[in-house]
Amino acid sequence: MALNIVLVEPEIPQNTGNIARTCALTKSTLHLVRPFGFEVDDRYLKRAGLDYWHLVDIYYYDSFDEVLEKYSNNNFYYATTKANNTYTDFSYRDNSFFVFGKETKGLPEELLGKNMDKCIRIPMIPELKRSLNLANSVNIILFEGLRQLDFPNLK
């Protein structure tokens, strides 16, 4: 059993490193879609991931379409502040994919428009028009998915 995290064009190496560490410790798979706002040998990326990199099941893609083509039979959920549904409104299954956009812009409007029924958000106060840090958002949503699956392979 596994869950998948997809980062589309991540920009901040520390976020990606922290997310990689979370994926390693939860046996979740990390999918990274180029272009990145950093080099994969970036010292901040490596430092944030600490010595967990060898434990991360990680894949690289040149476009999000490659991810969709490869895993077309799986459930995809798109994290965005623009969703009507919260992340707790769905029942996640083994091998679900949680897709997150770049830190400064989120996911492309066109992608969200095509998938509004699978868009999820984390409730926040609306007045600030801001969102949580990407690594924190990934953790919140990933752990809800893991909770629903009864924390497979975890103790």
UniProtKB/TrEMBL annotation:
Statement: the UniProt record of this protein carries the keyword Zinc: no
PANTHER family, A to Z: TRNA (CYTIDINE(34)-2'-O)-METHYLTRANSFERASE
Task of the protein: Could methylate the ribose at the nucleotide 34 wobble position in tRNA.
E.C. no: 2.1.1.207
UniProt GO BP: wobble position ribose methylation
Family as reported in the entry's similarity comment: Belongs to the class IV-like SAM-binding methyltransferase superfamily. RNA methyltransferase TrmH family. TrmL subfamily.
SUPFAM superfamilies in UniProt: alpha/beta knot
UniProt KW keywords: Cytoplasm, Methyltransferase, S-adenosyl-L-methionine, Transferase, tRNA processing
Catalytic activities: 5-carboxymethylaminomethyluridine(34) in tRNA(Leu) + S-adenosyl-L-methionine = 5-carboxymethylaminomethyl-2'-O-methyluridine(34) in tRNA(Leu) + S-adenosyl-L-homocysteine + H(+); cytidine(34) in tRNA + S-adenosyl-L-methionine = 2'-O-methylcytidine(34) in tRNA + S-adenosyl-L-homocysteine + H(+)
Domain tRNA/rRNA methyltransferase SpoU type: 3-143
Gene Ontology MF: a single term: tRNA methyltransferase activity
Subcellular location: Cytoplasm
Protein name: Putative tRNA (cytidine(34)-2'-O)-methyltransferase
HAMAP family per record: tRNA_methyltr_TrmL
CDD domains cross-referenced by the UniProt entry: SpoU-like_TrmL
One GO cellular component term noted in the UniProt record for this chain: cytoplasm
Principal localisation: cytoplasm
Residues annotated as binding S-adenosyl-L-methionine: G101, I122, S131
Enzyme category, top tier: transferase
Gene giving rise to this polypeptide: trmL
